[in-house]
Amino acid sequence: MAQSRYLIIGLGRFGAALAESLAEQGAEVIAVDRDMAMVDAVKQKVAYAIELDATDPQALLSIDPLKCRAAIVAIGENFEATVLTLAALKEVGVRDIVARSRSARESRILQAVGATQVIELEYEMGRTFGKRLIGGAEAQAALGQALKA
Q1: Disulfide engineering: 101 pairs with which of 1, 83, 107, 130, CB 3.0-4.6 Å?
Q2: CATH assignment of 5-148, given 3.40.50.720, 3.30.565.40, 3.40.50.150, 3.40.1160.10?
Q3: pLDDT tens digits, residue range 12-58?
Q4: Rounded CA separation 132/7 (Å)
Q5: pTM of structure
Q6: Which of 2, 129, 21, 144 is nearest to 70 (CA)?
């Protein structure tokens, strides 16, 4: 298993940004989507960009997912495709699968199907941004106090 090889399935805003970020940090990225336009949009930024139906276990085997450190299912709006992709990844033996969800209920379902980690983007971003706002305000207040001294 390559420690720095990742499989990203779904190349919408989140998947494409994640693929690009991982590649910028030196990871080998296999980026997959059913839509060739999405594949074309990232092909210059990642090691491999492939048009593929990731709900099909045989199609997944053609890209050798077992050599990846993790598979990230970044499909956004189609929950059925997310579940089917997760099931296909489990069927071919992928152990570390991260899946994107839109709600706590979806998260529970994805964990039950076999996701090792689930990301609720909107929830996590809200928490992170809230901390950044408070941290930024506290840092500015401290700077203001230091300038007065």
Answers
A1: 107
A2: 3.40.50.720
A3: 999 999 999 999 999 999 999 999 999 999 999 999 999 999 999 99
A4: 30
A5: 0.85
A6: 2
